[in-house]
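Hi everyone,

Forwarding the result from last night's run.
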Amino acid sequence: MVRKRQSNRRRPDRREQLRGAAASSWALIRAALPFAFLAVVALGLPYLTFQAYVHTVSSSYFALKHVEVRGHDRVGQDQILAAAQIVVGMNVFSVDTSRSEAVISGLDFVKAVRVERRLPDRVEVRIEEYVPAALLVEDGYTVIDAEGKGFLKLAAGAPLGALIDLPLISGLTRADLASERSVVLLGHALEVARIYDEMGLGQLQKLSQVHVDAVMGVSLVTEETGTEVRLGWGRYGERLERLRVVQSTLIRRGMDADYVLVDQDGDLGRVAVGRRPEPGSGDGGGVRATP
């Protein structure tokens, strides 16, 4: 049996339909608002960041006014700043600290460096320099520090400046310093040069050269007279004290010696002093003395 549709069913009027459509639209808008906000932020944040960056790098508040360089002695401040391209007036954020450290580290005598910004308008450069202790003689010179580190190569004939007063070390090359044994030998030479200076022996005879030999040990050559002093190995303070007595005696007597041998391990009191024979003259004038 078919049921007839009721003819009195109420249909929504036009006003209700419009209200329903409006409610649906607002619901969609409210649902979309968070996503729209995120889109605005995503698009606007890079722009705002860029504008903040432009303001920062162009603001006079961050203009570099003070550059402090500390720890440098042999390397000039102008040379350091020119290498690092640090200029008063530039924006402090334009100072590339990593690049500046890398460039400054390549300058002669620079052992370590640290470059730091101090906001708003200051940069600090802290330098640690190598301290030259001697010149290693080969086909030129290698400047070495007290730890035996060869840090600067100089060509033969290059001006030495203040380095000319450093003792010369022979018997090794820069390549030899790669071996542990050679570093030990170099340590002996540096120790002798240090003790010689600390004892004031340079006031009697200035030290010119220290020679190291894996078999014979350490020898010295004085500058004024060219006297060769053989020390052997170890007990350098005692050996150099014997040398002081010999040098004082020779100076007092107005005499020179070609060699002084203080390498007798069994008895350091036995010192040989003499002159080498002239060509064709037979034996030399060597004598053994116990000053």
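Confidence is low (pLDDT under 50) at residues 50-54, 287-291.

Cheers,
N.
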